[in-house]
Amino acid sequence: MTHRYALAAVAGLAAILTVQSLHMLEHVAQVLQKFVLRQPEAHGLLGAIFDFEWVHFVFNVSLGAGLVLIFIWCRRTAGHPLPLSLRAVVWLQGYHVVEHVVKILQYYVSHAEPTKGILGFVFPVIWLHFWINMIVLALIVVLIVGDWDGIESHDRSALAGVSTVQ
Asked: Where are the domains positioned within the chain?
């Protein structure tokens, strides 16, 4: 039973790493468009098609749900404290979802795009979401590379899909 959860966690992490890496390319493109190319509007590579509040909201809720599933699968496999990087990425993406819930509410009140969210009133929105997404990606990479502190070696090998030599 735990092997099934371990395989699901590894497959889920691989899928999320791929999707979040591509998503991060969009944020890199936005920063380059805004600050290097000095374009008045920075929408990223696919922004003309996907740069709408609802698209961002659905993406971030889906990413958050995927990370929560991975957390649950890892918890069922390990049965004890999970890696700090996994707990941190679930927390950070959870906050990111809250930002987008607020942005959706602001959109319906003001009918303006882009909206600022919560921290967008303190930090430039383009940099705020760049860094949130960069940290989420970095935490996923740290988790995949091997932040398995507190997980026994047999659980670590099940999560990694490899056998551990003692």
From this structure: 2-160
